[in-house]
Amino acid sequence: MNEQSSGATTAHGGSAAAGPLDPIAEKVSACMQCGTCTGSCANAFAMDYTPRQLWRLVQLGEQDEIFRSTTFWMCSSCYYCTLRCPRGLPLTETIQALKRIAFARGTYRSKTSPVFYSTFVDNIRRYGRVREMDMMTRFFLRLKHPVAPLRFASLGVKLLRKGKISPQMPALFAKGKLDGLFRKVRELESES
Amino acid sequence: MKYLYYPGCSLEGTASEYDASVRAVMHSLGAELAEIEDWTCCGASAGDAISYLLSLALPARNLAIAGKQSPRSDVLVPCNACYLNLKRVDDHMNRSTDIREKINVVLAEENLRYGGGIKVRHLLDVLVRDFGPESIAANVKNKLSGMRIVPYYGCQFARPYSDADDPQFPVSMEPLIRALGAEVYPWTMGAKCCGAGLMTTKSEVALKLVANLLNGASEADCILTICPMCQMNLDSQQNKASRLLGKDMSKSVLYVTQLMGIAFGLSDEELMLKKNLAVTAGFQTKLRSASSRA
């Protein structure tokens, strides 16, 4: 992670010990609550807290409320908020950082997004490239949600019929192609 | 002209027609593509949601190989998400020497090193800037006259890195469409997000964005895309979008290189037109009448 711990205090003025939210709070400390991010966000309609409200929660250090929120899982990384923020804050990057913290803490209301991201990344480790069919199969298995695959069934059939996805056997016992690279990343991240 | 080619994972699977048409059209234009040897996934938007360092090390691995393979060639990328991820590496390495060092410690695992400076280019940028409408027009055998085409850029083509086009109202596809003899259908949604990043995890949210875009393009003959995520999302959700809006939302959604290939007189097989989920009857009739005029 490149964010250096700032040791910043929360907006409460409290002297909270350095926490994972500090670098994020520092990034949005200049937010003046104008709401341009919310007005620009394609997915704000589906969020519990709007982006502007989320930044306020971050400024206030309301950790529990932040990680109970669905807002950052609804971000589709279109960078429109970042483009239009009059304070020039890196909002999309900050949302991604919140996803990482939520993932590391294991606190999220719905497991769909974290399970998808981690299955995706695991596929990269195994094969170097994402094998769409293998990835989706593993995703549904890990989701343990019997109805979820049905929502994708008609699309899956269409794609198979068009020859757009090739059914591949998963390599169960093979060595992962990027094992070494992934191990090194984990090693460096646990040091910092 | 010679380029290092980074297809990205989708172009090996659900977007194989994009890969085929990119290769065919670039060949017609006289460009040489050398695929980056043993390239691996760029991490898409999942990598960054799991690990910041990983999200940079993955694309850096590809750039390091590219540098060894052909140090002076630009890397050509047809996918918006891959383009952003590969381009992002230099930006973030320049922001922090700490991250620059860490990336190289990771790459050392594979005996690679990336010093920066490889130029990452989106396919559209290469088509427009390196070839240009004149040389594209010179290859046109079937003018696509009478066709109204909606240029759809998606978000990550010009955001956050806007050196290829205007990040809010991109225009670079317009001269290209006109060079093919077609009309540009005017709209303002070219850089609006289609929600592809949420297609698997929050599909009901993505569907609303798709329906909105299809609705905005309802009077056009075809939506032209430059990203496998956008194409898949706009192409595959049309039945659901039709049910959501209570009207027919069928629309042909082609890759920029497929439409160019049609105008260049390349065969349907070369362009893999059969792989698109939706190529409407109306669009095919117009295509036939365009080629019979030629």
From TrEMBL, chain A:
The UniProt entry, under PROSITE patterns, shows: 4FE4S_FER_1 (PS00198), 4FE4S_FER_2 (PS51379)
Q: Name one Pfam family in it.
A: Fer4_8
Per its UniProt entry, which superkingdom is the organism in? Bacteria
Query: Which Gene Ontology cellular component terms are annotated?
Result: plasma membrane
Arranged from A to Z, the UniProt key words for this protein are: 4Fe-4S, Iron, Iron-sulfur, Metal-binding, Oxidoreductase
A GO molecular-function annotation: metal ion binding
UniProt entry tagged with the keyword Ribosomal protein: no
Q: Where is the 4Fe-4S ferredoxin-type domain?
A: 21-52
InterPro entries recorded for this chain?
A: 4Fe4S_Fe-S-bd, 4Fe4S_Fe_S_CS, HdrC_iron-sulfur_subunit, Helical_ferredxn
Official protein name in the record: Putative heterodisulfide reductase, C subunit
UniProtKB/TrEMBL annotation, chain B:
> Which keywords does this Swiss-Prot/TrEMBL entry list?
Oxidoreductase
EC no. given is 1.8.98.1
Q: Which GO terms describe its molecular function?
A: CoB--CoM heterodisulfide reductase activity
Looking up Pfam families in the UniProt record yields: CCG
Please spell out the taxonomic lineage of the organism that makes this protein. Bacteria, Pseudomonadati, Thermodesulfobacteriota, Syntrophobacteria, Syntrophobacterales
Protein's name according to its UniProt entry:
CoB--CoM heterodisulfide reductase
UniProt keyword annotation of Oxidoreductase present: yes
Its domain of life?
Bacteria
